[in-house]
Amino acid sequence: MRLGAASYVERHRDGGACLQVQSVLAKLSLCRTRALGGHEYVCDACDSTCVVANSCGDRHCPGCSGSKRYDFSERASKMLLDGVDYYQVVFTLPSELSRLALGNRQSLSDLLFASAWKSLSKTIRSEQGYDPAAIMVLHTWNQKLQAHWHVHAIVPGAGPGIRGAGWQTSTAPPASGLSDDHYLVDAINLRTAFRKIATSHLQRLRKRGELKLDVDPDFGDLRTDDNWDALIEHLQSVDWVSFIQPPPAGSSGPNDLVRYLTRYLTGGPISDSRIVAADAGEVTFMAREGKVQGGQSVQVPVTLSTEEFVRRWCLHIQPDQLTKTRYFGGWSNNRLTAYQESCVSMMNAAEVPLSAEAMQFPPLESEPSEFESDCSSAPKCPSCGEAALRILAYRARPSWSDLLSQGSTHLPTWHRKSLELDDERFWDGCYGAGFSAWYLENVVESAYRRSAALPSATQMMLAGLETSRSDALE
User: Fold this and answer.
1) What gap in Å lies between CA 221 and CA 185, rounded to an integer?
2) Helices first, then strands: H and E counts in the chain
3) Confidence at residue 434, expressed as pLDDT on a 0 to 100 scale
4) 218-231 pLDDT, tens per residue?
5) For position 152, what pLDDT does the model report?
C-alpha cells in the first residue's frame, strides 16, 4: 500500500481517492513507524536496545486490530450452545447493486443487512416455527478485490418455539426426500423473499431521495423514472444469491464458523499470505477461480499494476459510521440474556445435553473493546532472541488530528498536496477563482500591515476563517 498510494492518489484525487480514503492510506503508511511513538526496550541478556513502534489501530489495516477480532471471537463463541446445529447463510447483492453501493455505502449496507435478516426471520418462523437469531458480518469484495457486497450469517438450526411450542429444531419437510438431518429452510423461498424485500427497500430509498444515482454511467441516468424502472425490472427478473451451508462436519465445529468470520472482521480485503510478489510496479496475488471436480477451488495468480491494486483495495474502505458486524433476533443486545436463558431452559426440558460452558452467558456490555497497542507486552530481543526485554521509555501515540494536519512533519507529501488543493477549491468556491492563491501571496504582509485597503472578502476571512469554513462544511 505504501508503494502505490502516491501514484493512486495523484491519478484519482478527483475520483475515488476522497479525503477519507487518503486518511486511511496515510494512517497505514505511518503504522509501526516512529511517528506513532512506541516502547524503547533494553535487553538484559545482551544489553542491546530496540524500539517497537505503535500500530495505527485503523480497522482497515492488515496488521492491526487483533484485539477486536479476539473479542468478537470470544463473544460469538459464548453464544453457541451444545446440541444445536449452526448454519452459515450467505446473502449477496446482484452486481448492479454492488456497484451502486460504492456511492451509497451506508444506505446499501443497511439495505443488505435488513433484507437478509427480514427474509431469514420470516422464512424460519413460517417454515420451522421457532424464534431465530443471527450474527451477520459484511464483506464487500471477491477474491480479485472487486466490489461484491454480501453478508455471512451464523444461524442456529433450533430455538424456542413461537407461541409456546417448546424447543424446536429445524427439520426437512417429508416431501423433500432428504436423507440427512441438516436442513434449515427452503433455499428458493429464502431467495425469493430476500429479493422481494430488498427491491422494496431500494424503491423506498429512491422515493425518499436517499440514494446517489449518478455514480455509474453504465446504468444511464437513474434519476429518470424510465431508467430506474428498467433497473428494478432487471433486478426482479434475475435470481438473487442466498446460499445455505450445512453445519460443519467431521473435525470441524461451530467455532470454525466464528473463526472464519473473524478473519475478515478487520484488516481489509486481502491478507499478506495471498500476496506472492509486490514492488512499485506490480502486485501478484493468489485468488480462487471457478471449481474443479469435487468442488475444490482453483487458485490462480492475479497480477495488477500497483496503482490498480491500491484502487481495488480502496474500494473496500468503509465510512467510520458503518458497522460491519450486527446481531439480530435472539442474539441482539437487548434480548441476548433472556433468549439464552430461554434456550437452556427449553433444551433441559427437551433433554438436549448441555456442557457447563453453555450455561455461561456473555454480559450485554461485552462489546468488542477499543483497540489497544500491540506493543503493550515486551517482545523478544531482535538481537539475541531472548525474552529479556525491559522497558526504558514509552511515548504515546500522538492524536491523528496532529499527525494528519498540514503542519505535521510526518504527513505524506501526496496527502499534504490533497489538503492544500481541498483548501484552494473551498476558498475559491466561496470568494471567487484565484482568491486562495491571492490570499496565500498576501496574507503575511496583510497580517502585519492590517491595511484598510484589503478587500472585504479578505477582511471576512481574517476575522473568522475557521468558523466560516466549519459552518460551510456543516
Assistant:
1) 39
2) 14, 13
3) 84
4) 666 788 899 899 99
5) 95
Q: Using alpha carbons, select from 100, 108, 316 the residue that is nearest to residue 216.
A: 100
457: burial class by Cβ within 10 Å (0-12, 13-18, 19+)? middle
Q: If we measure between CA atoms, which residue out of 262, 352, 276 comes closest to residue 309?
A: 276
> Which residue bears the cell 446440541?
83
Secondary structure element (H or E) that encloses residue 221, with its range: none
Name the band, by pLDDT with cuts 50, 70 and 90, for residue 119: very high
Of residues 106, 139, 137, the one with CA closest to residue 205: 106
- Residue 327 in this model has a pLDDT that exceeds 60: yes
- Cα angle 334-338-341, degrees, rounded to a multiple of 5: 150
| Closest among 6, 4, 44, 11 to 378, alpha carbons compared | 44
**What's the rounded Cα separation, in Å, for the pair 375 and 96?**
43
Give the CA-trace dihedral at 179, 183, 188, 191, to 10 degrees.
-160
Residue 303, CB half-sphere, CA atoms under 13 Å: how many?
A: 6
Question: What DSSP line would sit under 255-320, residue for residue?
Answer: HHHHHHHHHTTSS-S--GGGEEEE-SSEEEEEEEEEE-TTSPEEEEEEEEEHHHHHHHHHTT---T
Q: Is 440 left (phi over 0), alpha (psi -120 to 50) or beta?
A: alpha
Look up the pTM and report it: 0.83
Strands (E), 44-184: 49-53, 86-92, 133-141, 147-156, 158-160, 167-169
Angle subtended at Cα 81 by Cα 77 and Cα 82, rounded to the nearest 5 degrees: 120
Q: Encode pLDDT of 58-94 as tens digits.
A: 989 888 877 788 888 888 998 999 889 999 999 999 9
pLDDT of residue 446: 55
**Number of neighbouring beta carbons within 10 Å of residue 273:** 9
- Distances from the Cα of 105 to the Cαs of 19, 212, 315, 319, in angstroms? 16, 10, 10, 8
Rounded distance, CA 116 to CA 329, Å?
12
Grid look-up 496565500 returns 440
